[in-house]
Amino acid sequence: MMWVIIVGMALILFFNRYLFLEPRLPIRLNRGVKEFLGFAVPGMLTAICGPIIFVKDRALNPSLDNPYLLAGLCAIGLMVWSRNVLLSVVSSVALFYLFRWWL
User: Fold this and answer.
1) pLDDT of 15-26, one tens digit each?
2) CA 46 to chain CA mean position, Å
3) What are 42-95's pLDDT values in tens digits?
4) Cα separation, 59 vs 46, whole angstroms
5) Please, are residues 78 and 88 in contact by the beta-carbon 8 Å criterion?
6) Main-chain dihedrals φ then ψ at residue 55, nearest 5 degrees
7) Using H for helix, E for strand and C for coil, what is the string for the chain?
8) Is the pLDDT of residue 30 over 90?
9) Kind of pairing, strands 55-56 and 59-60?
10) Which of 25, 65, 92, 101 is at a distance of 20 to 30 A from 5, taking alpha carbons?
């Protein structure tokens, strides 16, 4: 049963992407929809990362001894300062492990 669900979801995902990527199909999105879909990735990343950063043992943990919060703030600062994704990711992961070891 699990394989049927996995294959079914893969087919749904494939055809969902295929409809928008195949240039011969007559489906076109207007400008408003394209702008709206531009917010999907930041919203999804916020929904995934928010609980990881702010919740510990089913309770809110916004303190400065939280290595996830400190590394997240450093990642935001590095990205704003450098505008280099690779530098920001590598540096913030290294800082996370440093904060985790130190705190």
Assistant:
1) 888 877 777 877
2) 6
3) 888 889 999 999 998 889 989 989 999 999 999 999 999 999 999 999 999 999
4) 18
5) yes
6) -115, 130
7) CHHHHHHHHHHHHHHHHHHHHCCCCCCCCCHHHHHHHCCHHHHHHHHHHHHHHHEECCEECCCCCCHHHHHHHHHHHHHHHHCCHHHHHHHHHHHHHHHHHHC
8) no
9) antiparallel
10) 25
What angle, rounded to 10 degrees, do the helices at 67-82 and 40-54 form? 140
Instruction: Name the one residue in this structure whose structure tokens are 């916020």.
Output: 46
Amino acid at 7: V
Two structure tokens written together for 83: 């505008």
Q: Is 70 exposed, middle or buried (0-12, 13-18, 19+ CB in 10 A)?
A: buried
